[in-house]
Amino acid sequence: MSKDDVIVFSGIVEDKLPNTMFRVKLENGHEILATVCGKMRKARIWVNVGEHVRVEMTPYDLDKGRITFVERNRPGADSENQ
Predict the structure, then answer these.
(1) How far apart are CA 27 and CA 34, in angstroms?
(2) Are 33 and 15 in contact (CB under 8 A)?
(3) H or E segment and range at residue 41
(4) Strands 31-36 and 52-57, how do they pair?
(5) Measured between alpha carbons, how far is 30 from 18 in angstroms, rounded to an integer?
(6) What is the pLDDT of residues 20-78, one digit of tens each?
(7) Rg (CA), the chain
(8) Hey, what long-range contacts does 56-63 have (CB within 8 A, 24 or more apart)?
(9) What span, in angstroms and rounded, lies between the C-alpha atoms of 18 and 21?
(10) How many alpha carbons fall within 13 Å on the CB side of residue 79?
(11) Is 19 buried (19+), middle (13-18) or exposed (0-12) by CB count in 10 A?
């Protein structure tokens, strides 16, 4: 397997833990521990409880993951405010 063989899930941040670790509940109901990826840490992107995130996981360890994207609701992005 190569480094690019990852499993991508969507989930919701349930709890914020020390050392930039988060408890994320995935769309299939499974809970994992996840950390913020390096590019998000370098860009100082914050992750809060209750936000929808995209998580990458390796097929070798399905209990840990890496948060790669935070899906935020920005004002003006939805069609209701038009």
Answers:
(1) 14
(2) no
(3) helix 38-42
(4) unpaired
(5) 21
(6) 999 999 999 999 999 999 999 999 999 999 999 999 999 999 999 999 999 987 665 55
(7) 14
(8) 56/6, 56/7, 56/8, 57/6, 57/7, 57/8, 57/9, 57/32, 58/5, 58/6, 58/7, 59/1, 59/5, 59/6, 59/7, 62/7, 62/30, 62/32, 63/32, 63/33
(9) 6
(10) 0
(11) exposed
Q: If we measure between CA atoms, which residue out of 64, 63, 58, 55 comes closest to residue 4? A: 58
Q: Which of 1-5, 13-17, 52-56 has the lowest mean pLDDT?
A: 1-5
**Beta strand spans in 1-82 (E):** 7-17, 21-26, 31-36, 52-57, 64-71
